[in-house]
Amino acid sequence: MRIRFHGSITHPRVGQQLELQCETTKEDTGVSWVRQDKGGTLHFIVFTSFLSKSTFAENLRGASTRFEARKDSKFYQLVVKSFTTQDEGNYFCLMNSNQELYFSPGQPAFFPVTTTAASTTAAPSNQHSITQRDPCLKSPDSETGKEKELNFACDFFIWIPLSGTCLLLLIALAITIVMCQRTRRRRCRCRRLALSNSSREADAAPDDIPEEQQ
User: Which of 19, 30, 60, 148 has the fewest Cβ atoms within 10 angstroms?
Assistant: First the structure.
């Protein structure tokens, strides 16, 4: 899977329409778009099926006021209608193919970095040039965020089937216990009938002795 900006955009601008493309190389049932903010938190945006039907997180029953999503051939597209500071982050597309989860590399989408140089006039020695760190640079925090993202997605696709399997096992166990109790009750009834018949035969035995022997 590959993700990139559509067109010649390198950095988005305020109010600009931003379009991202995700190219898939395997058979899939659809693609989900996720944004990771500067703090490492994941935000689900939309799921687009292979029939180009989209389900947005902010509006499950209709269109989104902030995003558009569609499928064109083997490309899935996400459009940010008007890019703002709350849309900054690393964008990922992910898909499930043959019960395996695939992640694309992250596509950074941040505003251009602004740098303010120190004044050339005399100033106290404790003043330095102010440089804003480029959020596109990789750091241990970004790597840790990606690991958290992968762990979250893997847990999601592992624990749901496992929970369903455990539920089925509990239902099977309950049915087995009920059947065993019914079988034991039937056996107890049969034993009681056999004991009652043998006692009746024992009570009737003295009456069958011939009168001459008496």
Answer: 60
